[in-house]
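fyi for ur records
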Amino acid sequence: MARKILWASLALAPITFAADSLLHLGDVPLFVLAALSLIPLAWLIGEATEHAAHHTGPGIGGFLNATFGNAPELIISLLAVADGLTEVVRGSLTGSVVGNLLLVLGFSLLFGRGDDSVDRESSFMWLALVLFATLLFLVPAIPSWTGGDAERHSLALLSLPVAIVLLVVYVAVTTWQLRRHSQLHETPASSEGVWPLWGAIAVLAGATVVTALIAEILVHSIETFADKAHLSDFFVAAVIVAIVGNAAEHGGAVVVANRGNIKLAAEIALSSGAQVAVFLIPAVTLLAWAIEPLALSFRPVELVAVGASAVLVGAMFNDRRSSNWHGTVLIGAYCVAAIAFFIAGNR
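which gave:
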């Protein structure tokens, strides 16, 4: 019954498009409608990921989900850069890393069932990438803390080598990870009811495109919502926009964890967080030069939140096991981070 409702609720996406382009609803009802339409899309991405993982294994399946799930964030970030909202871009990207490591993984572990083991080697590799990126972000970030304009051109120039190094490291590590998971995975003998790999990837791609379009509508309507709620742009970006951008990972990871595949859910959350840190942020930085230079002048509260999130998850996964209690702790830690973002306000 629940599956039938989710399949039927996919119709909310075209309804949202019609409401935006034809009916011209106000921002608040449009925000609610867009948010609701993301729920079945996130479920569909999770469904397709699980079918793809049947053929590829949890490691590559998690990578596919992270790649398709982070595509809307790339689009949203570049649109925000074009609108001159660089502070919103930085906040949404660091908030996305924190959201993946704490909120997405937290809910996955909280609602997870079955085998509670995790791939310690793979998890630690993703977490190490996040910590490495955090250290490199200090290069352009520290000069921005000493006063002056955080958007100054010199900081944007300083951000370029940081972005290039991160991209090179990401390609090298991801190649090694995919080869490792490919060697470890053995395709189950039974494939009854499983979508073919090409079909699962096609659904992932299609659902991601629609999610990106819905997310754009949601982001535009969020600004009015934030004004009425008297929230800072930074908090809206680091928490609300980041959660919206992570809708695919939220739904996908929780769905597969609840079905007993906690290992895949953990791969989705951790690989997605690492991908934002070492691929999405540098990619946005480089692509932004075609629009407007973007400086990686992150604030202390952002870098502390990202680094602490990686350390906390690493400490929990040290014994290769997970639990519902771990999920509760991670969600609580995310609430602490969100409160810190709220207190920090704008620069």
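The chain has one domain: 2-186+193-344. thats all i got for now
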